[in-house]
Amino acid sequence: MTRGTPPRPAWVPVDREPVHEELFGNDLVRVYEARIEPGTTTLDHRHDQDTVYVVVRGGRFRSDNTWRQHNVTRPGRSSGLLRSVGWLLRRLTVGWLRMPDGTLLWQPHAAHPVVHRVTASSSNDGALRMVGIELRRHRPPRRIPETPALRLEYASPRSTSYRIAALPGTTVHVPGESVLTVVHGEATLQGGSRHEPGATVWVAEDGPLTSQPAEPLLAILTVV
């Protein structure tokens, strides 16, 4: 290091960043949730596994990169072109973004690792919550038939993600070896297990998913 040059800031792997809490893992995925309270900032941390992100509770935030790097982010279909372009312009100008509940992002970190820190705006009325689904095994992605309640959100080389927007009492068939994140409403899986808003679970076997009769269901299903 040249005299007078400040030392490079330290970073930690994402699995050692304090607010990135692991939910579960197996040979296919490692799933964690980042919960960032208003006005707080994470440590600088590194992502190096291909990851599907689901915004469970949205808000205003910024991501600051300490190192010069190529950051590739692909939003899901429901974000739309205009919103995606708006995010890019705001990131390049003011840096702050606002993402709604249910936003999906795909980032190929294996080819494009990123070190960053995330700050949640002090104006948010609650913690920013985002689920990260790291893909551990390389195998061809699986596609499943779409229905009015289950639509393809994003197809990557490693996985396929579907947006479930179901009226109360609707049943859809979901495949095993999938990650389900409930954003709004409640979902009942095969065997009767009920999952409330914010829940992220591993779906081991093919079977029915039913939205509760009280309110519509919004969920993201990532098939690995």
Quick structural summary:
The protein is mostly beta strands and about 220 residues long. It has one helix at about 80-95, and strands at about 10-15, 20-25, 30-35, 45, 50-55, 60-65, 75, 95-100, 105, 115-120, 130-135, 150-155, 160-165, 170-175, 180-185, 185-190, 195, 200-205, 205-210, 215-224.
Can you put this structure into words, describing what you see?
A hairpin with a 4-residue loop joins strand 12 and strand 13. This protein has one helix and 20 strands. A six-stranded antiparallel beta sheet has the order 2-3-11-5-9-7, with no helix packed on it. The chain is mainly beta and 224 residues long. The protein has two domains: 124 residues, Jelly Rolls; 74 residues, Jelly Rolls, CATH 2.60.120.
